[in-house]
């Protein structure tokens, strides 16, 4: 089923829900989901509505303007309009660890993700056979301090050539430059192997072991300039005990990482995420 | 702040959200929360809306009728209208175990529950001093096979005299009769000390131990005629290991029970629960 | 490192730990792990000890007898002696669902499982390409009511030919016969897609939806004659809400299933499981 | 039942378990629990053994010396010997928040804690009636910058007068001085309302809200000089969503805090905690 998705933000006021829902109703829109949220701190109203497109009374390429004139202008709204088609194009960046890659490809294979994966990019050659087994092109772009800028340029060229919508860092062990990130604002999802904001940076499982925590976690977030500080999409945790070695923390943590990352991808694909400042609204 | 709460159920159709929100908007209603749900199995649409009453354009005692005429009639809706005042009156039934009672009284004391507790009824005298310390009358009504009917009649009389809105069985170890239950449909909340539907009936921790489960749980549900089979409001679990004795399961489980029961009470007080068949919708 | 693993069971008595640890110490055994458990219900003492084999003072093929004479006879012990080599041989049984299969193969690929997988058997051909991508032989043995007995005979022949130590039912949708099970006592691990003992049998997610539970789960257990009633090895759960459809329960549940099944395999490979009646001890 | 508890630490070596268990066995000790742990990072061996005292062959006041001569000297062990009697004496420090206090008193009332509570100290008078209802003396010692030193001196005097073994800070909102802490090394348990090391210091729920985390937590730890940096005893978490206000985070978090703090007290009372550097071993 083809659907349209509207996400709006404006100062909270009376009549917003009525105005939006009347616009949809009067144009014969069958609402599939509607969710709203009032941020009491900043006083803003947020809303996501999804409705059937095929029976809608306004042509697809007219909706944005008509909604703007008839509704958004009245309430001084920021709004985005998008559709659940065509399938978005996702690029995967990996290094040597395979658990997140496998988990994503497994869901892709079974149809759980409505996405195309035109390419996988890695700074190491190790995972090429896996990726090829799924019929996906694999680009090996080794990175050194000296080649980093040129390799990122090549990565951006590849992403643009393939019309990539968003990038998933599936335990990609390179820090992206400010320039690279600026090409994909809120379009790069990273999995960090700790319960952020605890244990920012390298070797979080070692840091967790050293601090003696009783629970470890993983965090999927959008990548921003500041390392591991972008808006959090999803987190989860697992219980550990004093006798777990760092290697065991790594294994226990990987089960959390892969599930958390895949949930974040699912929210992103369903277009249920709205970034507000450094927080995310996850619409239901 | 005084609020009105509308919960509706009808066949799913276009324009319901628009009609309801327009009704509120045109009467100057400031919507505080709106949540909707479509049950795909039965094809019904559900919605809960809460709005400020003080500035609303329709008098409190006219809302039900006007909404009925202007909106509900159009969509053949079932609907309830209620208010967040006056404070509801909750009765507690207890036996000898104190953990749920303490947890509820602790929240009552700290103002977490917006509720009045006019009385506690017990078939044992043990917990009277605790209850009295909170300034709440305690009624000791011992129950035997022979006196059960007369004691339930006395209980009902007390509940009616005190204008009780709903009853919480805080580990009350008597099975209520069909007649008693019929006086309070979806108004009696029980905490069962297992992850229902596993381990219905008496001694669930013993049964859990015997079955060798690795996780135990607790379930808060509305009481219906069939034992431990009413609509589930909330559940939670805790991990256990083979070396935990039955007594340890009991202690671990009690921490789950008290938190689950109090969450269920909170949902009930916020009027966020809609029972549909044998399931509950918990609006957000 | 080569290790020996001793698991004992006997009536609880004084001096057991001393006797076992002295036997190991006097023969120059370097204990790597020791864990004990007293079952208060049946009054039995259980212990697992693992020690370095290479520096041990008794020849590998003499340990069983010498321990029997010097220690086990004194306390009337039941005991098993095993080793962490050679790698055990695991057979996978699958049908059409791929999530558990992928998860297991992913861990096999990354070296997380110390195991050989000589073959995968399925009653459907769908998953053959995946399995072949890992260089593992795939046997397609379709099953109908009429062919069930002969196909099971063929399965047993294949398992014996390949010297299989244990079988994992990775969402294999056939019920094994009593005869098949008797060939592999406590050697067949199944993943059931519910929090047992709730929702035994077919379509547990539909049953969970219908009962309106707020948490779903998965259970890995050894297969015994009675359906879904064997000793539980591991369980875990995930929270769901009223608006989750059965299809969503299935997706949410699959993430739990695969992790629970892989944990059970890990315990089995580490030889940390002792079945007692219908319960399992999971040694640490 | 009277028991003795031995906790040892030494360089890992062969024969330690044998030596300890033989010492117990030869003196007719009935071992109730034995647990060991090898810290691979520092190469140390740790062990906790608990056995029946009444039938033990060595007099209570001779055990320490005899174990020292016969066993500890051989392996150059650090060791502590303690007993499960008399009941330890616990002091509670509180401020205005009641949830942890109620939870502790509830367990004390029901006999879940084997402890005496000779006094509660607070810098505010609010909770006096609750404490008195349990028959426990309440000392109101208000604290200002100017009076802090003298009030701490008075606190220490009270604790010493009552023979207090350990102190529990049940949401006590004052930072203890280095001097105060030095009187009770690893004898002061604090509950911090975040998942440490995230959100050290004041107002962690505000910080968690601002960071947009999807999970909040609580941490029980021994108090050391550095704020919120002492050895972690227990942690747990709860899931939150974007629509939860700071006030809701506080309420959700309080349910975690009280259970985590009470678990930490339980481990401490059972003498199952060994502090190693800045980590804790929790023996089973």
What fraction strand of chain A? Answer: 25-35%
| Count of domain modules of chain A | 2
User: Unreliable runs of chain A, pLDDT <50, ≥5 residues?
Assistant: none
Radius of gyration of chain A: 21 Å
> What CATH architecture of the largest domain in chain A would you give?
3-Layer(aba) Sandwich
Q: Oligomeric state of the chains?
A: homotetramer
Q: Remind me, CATH topology of the largest domain in chain A? A: Rossmann fold
Which chains make the largest contact?
A: A-D, 30 and 30 residues
Secondary-structure element order of chain A, as H and E?
Answer: EHEEHEEHEHEHEHEHEEHEE
Could you characterize what this model shows?
The structure is a homotetramer of 284-residue chains. By secondary structure, chain A is α/β, with parallel strands linked by helices. Chain A folds into 2 domains: 3-83, Alpha-Beta Plaits, CATH 3.30.70.260; 89-282, 3-Layer(aba) Sandwich (Rossmann fold). Chain A is built from 8 helices and 13 strands. Chain A has helices at 16-26, 63-75, 99-110, 128-133, 148-161, 178-182, 204-211, 246-269; strands at 3-11, 31-39, 44-52, 78-83, 89-94, 116-122, 138-140, 166-169, 188-192, 215-222, 232-239, 273-276, 279-282. In chain A, the strands form 3 sheets. A 7-stranded mixed β-sheet of chain A has the order 7-6-5-8-9-10-11. In chain A, strand 2 and strand 3 form a beta hairpin. The longest helix of chain A has 24 residues, at 246-269. The two termini of chain A are 19 Å apart. The interface between A and D is medium-sized, with 30 and 30 residues.
């Amino acid at each position: 089923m083809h659907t349209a998705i509207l996400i709006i933000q404006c100062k909270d006021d009376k009549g917003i829900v009525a105005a939006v829902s009347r616009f949809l109703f009067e144009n014969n829109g069958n609402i599939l989901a509607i969710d709203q949220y009032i941020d009491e701190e900043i006083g803003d109203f947020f809303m996501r509505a999804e409705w059937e497109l095929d029976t809608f009374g306004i042509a697809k390429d007219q909706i944005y303007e008509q909604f703007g004139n008839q509704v958004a202008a009245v309430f001084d709204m920021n709004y985005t309009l998008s559709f659940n088609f065509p399938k978005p194009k996702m690029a995967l960046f990996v290094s040597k660890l395979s658990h997140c890659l496998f988990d994503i490809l497994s869901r892709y294979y079974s149809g759980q993700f409505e996405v195309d994966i035109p390419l996988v990019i890695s700074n190491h050659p190790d995972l090429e056979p896996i990726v090829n087994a799924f019929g996906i092109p694999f680009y090996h772009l080794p990175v050194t301090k000296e080649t980093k800028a040129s390799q990122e340029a090549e990565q951006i060229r590849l992403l643009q050539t393939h019309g990539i919508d968003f990038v998933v860092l599936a335990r990609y062990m390179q820090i992206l430059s400010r320039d690279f990130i600026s090409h994909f604002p809120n379009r790069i999802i990273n999995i960090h192997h700790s319960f952020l904001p605890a244990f920012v940076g390298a070797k979080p499982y070692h840091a967790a072991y050293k601090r003696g925590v009783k629970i470890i976690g993983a965090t999927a977030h959008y990548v921003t300039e500041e390392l591991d500080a972008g808006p959090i999409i999803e987190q989860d945790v697992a219980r550990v005990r004093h006798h777990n070695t760092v290697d065991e923390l790594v294994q226990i943590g990987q089960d959390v990482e892969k599930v958390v990352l895949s949930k974040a991808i699912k929210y992103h694909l369903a277009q249920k995420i709205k970034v507000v400042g450094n927080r995310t609204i996850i619409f239901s």
